[in-house]
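Lecture 7 notes: from sequence to structure.
We start with the chain below.
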Amino acid sequence: MRTRAAIGLGTILIALAGTLLFGLAVKASCADGLWTDLKQYRLLCYSDVVPLYGTERLQGDRLPFVDDCHANDATNPCDEYPVLTMYTMRLAAWASHSYASFFFWNAVFLSIAAGVTAFLLYRMTGPRALYFALAPTLLLYAFMNWDLIAVAFATAATYWFLRKRDVASGIMLGLGAATKLFPVLLLVPFAAERLRRKDPRGAVNVIAATGVSWLVVDLPFMVTRFHEWFFFFHHNAWRPADWDSLWFIACSPGQTHGCSSSGFVNAFSVLAFVVLAVAAWVAKVARQPDTPRWQLGFPILVAFLLTNKVYSPQYGLWLLPWFALVLPDLRLFVAFEAADVAVFVTRFAFFGHLAGGPNGWTGAFSIGWFQLAVVARALVLVLCVVRFVRREPIGARAPVMVNA
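Predicted structure tokens for the same chain:
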């Protein structure tokens, strides 16, 4: 028998629309790309989407990875994103005639991705989808970069996985990895859950479908333009630790010079990620042996964010569905959101000060305030993992029809 949820799908989608509209309003003043007065910092409206219309050479008909972009210097790279992200940009650019129209077309695509995510979360978690739809992180970062598309693929992969549609789940993971690499991290807990259920065929199906779907997208460029296709991996391997990472703070607390050796950070960030992810996995399974292994995607993602040398501002979007799926703890969610907003404000205020902007409210925030906010967010994420390990697994229900 169908039961009417206290909060229906319509309410979820209305909440999502409000969040996205406020987010669009915050970014709109930067959409024209005229940033000579540093308004992207003063008005907190910065978005990667706007400048990449120019730096990725998309004003004409250049095809990413196929046509030369004539931008080989490290300060102005080209084709620096995975294939599906680059071709989302390409599609938006074909419909655009200016920086502003490019931004708004991408906002349409990203809003669709957010809608898909919210709908699938509602099917899996009911009213808990509000953890995604009303998140300040979504308001601030929905239109910062293209991560929402990968988030939609990862959420779709989880949805199909819970319906025991392993091939469909793997396809979604592969397409997500062709958009932003993080969805491939979910392959380990998904396959482990199938093996726990004595279903090796299911594990093979999800792994194979992930690999095949990723290759379908990437292989044509790997074969024909390997150097251009590989630039994404080369660029990320040798880029220095980013401002928002714990590595940057460890290398230069209260300072701006960061880490001197990418090789050292690369090696130890991988080691730290494996150690932290395995520790959380072992602790959870030891405490609650019947924990569905797919739920361990949450601590794996957190471990990656805490140990990686890059924690771009919008990466918090990766975690929002998981608060609805496995950790609907309102206090911890509010703490994470407060810390994420604090990082956003102090980061861009400090960048405005660093860029030599006019004295104003941004001058009140030194790098010390920014790094304090980054550390506070990291501590909250550690608490989230501890809480996840200690609490009884609730997770998502199998997708069912719910009256909206």
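Points to note: Residues 9-390 form one domain. DSSP finds 18 helices and no strands in the chain.
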